[in-house]
């Protein structure tokens, strides 16, 4: 079992930056693919960023590529999402996900609000 707790959300003006953290407990994250998703009001949950177990491979959708960076610290069992040049359309609840064969865990989410 893995417990995930996100933090770092808040209110920021357009063009600003935030860094989200996802702290894991229960076991090490070293064998998990880690990802961030987001969900805006009235919309489906959307993939934002993913990194493999070593952190050496990352993937982003075009909507955030060049602005968001995912990183992980397996020693600290923490995953980060650095978000730069934020836009109002980035407003959503951001969720951390840990996935391995046969298992998928979610955090409770952290709210990010970008004002124009």
Features:
single chain; 0% helix
Give me a quick take on this structure.
This protein has strands at 3-7, 10-13, 18-25, 33-39, 46-51, 58-59, 68-73, 78-83, 92-100, 103-106, 110-115. By secondary structure, the protein is mainly β.
Counting helices, strands and paired strands, the structural category is mainly beta
* Nearest-integer average pLDDT: 93
Note poorly predicted spans.
none
For the secondary structure, the number of strands is: 11
Query: Helical stretch count?
Result: 0
Summarize the main sheet: 7 strands, mixed
Radius of gyration: 13 Å
Task: Report, as a whole number of angstroms, the end-to-end distance.
Answer: 40 Å
Name the beta content range: over 45%
Assign a percent range to the helix content: under 10%
Shape annotation: globular
Order of helices and strands: EEEEEEEEEEE
Describe this structure in words.
By secondary structure, the protein is mostly beta strands. Helices cover 0% and strands 54% of the residues. The chain is built from no helices and eleven strands. The protein has strands at residues 3-7, 10-13, 18-25, 33-39, 46-51, 58-59, 68-73, 78-83, 92-100, 103-106, 110-115. Strands 2, 4, 5, 6, 9, 10 and 11 form a seven-stranded mixed β-sheet that branches. Strands 1-3-8-7 form a four-stranded antiparallel β-sheet, with no helix packed on it. It is globular, with a radius of gyration of 13 Å. The mean pLDDT is 93.
């Amino acid at each position: 079992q893995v417990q995930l707790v996100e933090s770092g959300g808040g209110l920021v003006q357009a063009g600003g930056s935030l860094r989200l953290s996802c702290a894991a407990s229960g076991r090490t994250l070293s064998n998990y693919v880690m990802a961030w998703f987001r969900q805006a009001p009235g919309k489906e949950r959307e993939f934002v960023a993913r990194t493999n177990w070593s952190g050496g491979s990352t993937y982003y959708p075009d909507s955030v590529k060049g602005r968001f960076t995912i990183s992980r610290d397996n020693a600290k069992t923490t995953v980060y999402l650095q978000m730069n040049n934020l836009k109002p359309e980035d407003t959503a609840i951001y969720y951390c996900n840990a996935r391995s064969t046969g298992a998928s865990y979610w955090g409770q989410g952290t709210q990010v609000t970008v004002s124009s």
